[in-house]
Design brief:
Four Helix Bundle (Hemerythrin (Met), subunit A), flat, mainly alpha, Tetracycline Repressor, domain 2, 2 domains
Length: 288
């Protein structure tokens, strides 16, 4: 039984789900006007992890055919044969998803449930089923899944409309293409082999690098909107400017050299960018 359960764990993409959950917590902290409720944080983490894990498990099941083609994903549980290709992952995904909606609705509020539902829907259905194999726009629209996590966090502080989580969700939206297109440059041949129209497959690495730079400029501008409208303070502003300059420089390096090595460095830089930026949100809220 322990071996069987161990084989199921990779279905949940815990690193990605942890990033999504961290984004939700940032949304909660940024929206809270008073002290943050520990119980709210705990229930938000639980519900977001379950919802994102459910969407990830569904993604593993639906993509088992292309995962078997790409070397990067051949060792995932279903294509590797660690677990069979029956509908067990779908059952696990359904249980986790229902549990996430139940916990968020009863322990938090209906708006948290709605945002978690929409986030899972976008990733599992809009991205995985509809767009991933059909359009280079897949990751742009699919990136809304992460934005809904931020909105879920904001809603856990108050179900009423608040601008701070909306602006952070916009930042998350613009971050995703710069992050994933860099990754797609590194794995362009594998995506092409599997018939997945990621942007570098469709237009090549050089043009993709230009799109990445353009998108990152929009990302940096969006990251400064919370400061411009007065929702976050000087610590966040200085950090956002510094991180933006750092990431744009990385993008320019990729523009001049689209090798896999530089693309991978840009991909890693995008992770540093978002992690430190969202940490700056938390610190700014604490020190203000």
């Amino acid at each position: 039984m322990q071996i069987s359960l161990k084989h199921y764990f990779p279905l949940f993409k815990f690193r990605i789900c942890s990033l999504i959950t961290f984004s939700a917590v940032v949304g909660l902290i940024a929206t809270s006007s008073d002290s943050v409720s520990i119980s709210n944080v705990a229930f938000l983490i639980l519900a977001t992890m379950m919802a994102s894990s459910a969407a990830s498990a569904f993604n593993h099941y639906f993509d088992m055919d292309i995962d078997a083609v790409m070397k990067r994903t051949q060792k995932r549980p279903i294509p590797s044969g660690s677990i069979d290709n029956s509908r067990k992952p779908l059952f696990v995904a359904a249980i986790l998803f229902i549990a996430a909606i139940f916990v968020s609705f009863n322990a938090l509020n209906y708006m948290v449930s709605l945002h978690l539902f929409l986030g899972a829907l976008v990733y599992a259905v809009v991205y995985t089923v509809w767009l991933k194999r059909k359009s280079w726009l897949n990751i742009i629209i699919g990136g809304l899944a992460g934005s809904f996590a931020v909105l879920a966090g904001g809603a856990s502080a108050t179900p009423e409309f608040c601008m701070t989580p909306v602006l952070l969700a916009v930042t998350m939206f613009f971050w995703t293409p710069s992050h994933f297109w860099s990754f797609a440059i590194v794995h362009r041949e594998e995506y092409a082999k599997a018939g997945i129209p990621m942007l570098p497959v469709v237009i090549g690495d050089s043009k993709t690098a230009r799109y990445i730079l353009l998108n990152t400029i929009l990302l940096v501008i969006s990251s400064l909107l919370p400061s411009y409208f007065g929702y976050l303070g000087i610590f966040y502003t200085v950090t956002a400017i510094g991180l933006g300059a750092f990431f744009i420089i990385r993008n320019i390096q990729l523009l001049s050299n689209t090798s896999k090595e530089i693309a991978w460095k840009n991909f890693k830089a995008s992770m540093v960018y978002l992690g430190v930026l969202f940490l700056a949100v938390i610190v700014d809220v604490i020190v203000r």
